[in-house]
Amino acid sequence: MAIKRGSKVDTSFSMSSMSDMVFLLLIFFLVTSTLVSPNALKLLLPKSNSQVQGKPITSISIDDINGAYYYYIEAQPVAFENIESTLQQKLMNEEEKTIALHVDGSIPMDEVVKVMNIAKNNNYKLILATSPE
């Protein structure tokens, strides 16, 4: 009578748990990469060597296209008359209301001051975005 041994070691390796982990990591990186909203407008920012440590909640961009000034809040075009109300809606529930201002180098200072006045009237902190020297 042949007696078989019952404690045979299985030498196969299951890749299902490893593929599950890779799939979850892929989903994580896809979701987090869509949360990052880079400034999509190509602006020639003024140069500076000082850096501010504040973290802006939203950004305003001013661009000059064929002599007309266009305003953007997070790459969405907004008429100047609607900037204040749009900012109030975006920053309504925020504790520290900080805005980054991205301005092309060819924009006159009058346009920048208009946005700065909106920030001052609503007690928003304003950070002027610059490129490193």
Query: According to CATH, what is the class of the domain at 47-132?
Result: Alpha Beta
Mean pLDDT across all amino acids: 80
Uncertain runs are none
Largest sheet, strands/sense/barrel: 5 strands, mixed
The name of the CATH architecture of the domain at 47-132 is 2-Layer Sandwich
Beta-strand residue fraction? 15-25%
GO molecular function: transmembrane transporter activity
Membrane topology: Single-pass membrane protein; Single-pass type II membrane protein
Protein name: Biopolymer transport protein ExbD
Main location: membrane
What does this structure look like?
With 133 residues, the protein is α/β, with parallel strands linked by helices. It has a domain at 47-132: Nucleotidyltransferase, domain 5 (2-Layer Sandwich). 31% of the residues lie in helices and 23% in strands. The protein is built from three helices and seven strands. The chain has helices at 16-35, 83-90, 109-121, and strands at 47-48, 58-65, 68-73, 76-78, 98-103, 125-128, 131-132. Strands 4-3-2-5-6 form a five-stranded mixed beta sheet, covered by helices on one side. It has a two-stranded parallel sheet with strand order 1-7. Strand 3 (68-73) and strand 4 form a beta hairpin. It starts with 15 loop residues before the first helix and ends with a strand.
List keywords for this structure.
133 residues; alpha/beta; Nucleotidyltransferase, domain 5; five-stranded mixed sheet; two-stranded parallel sheet; elongated; transmembrane; membrane; protein transport; transmembrane helix
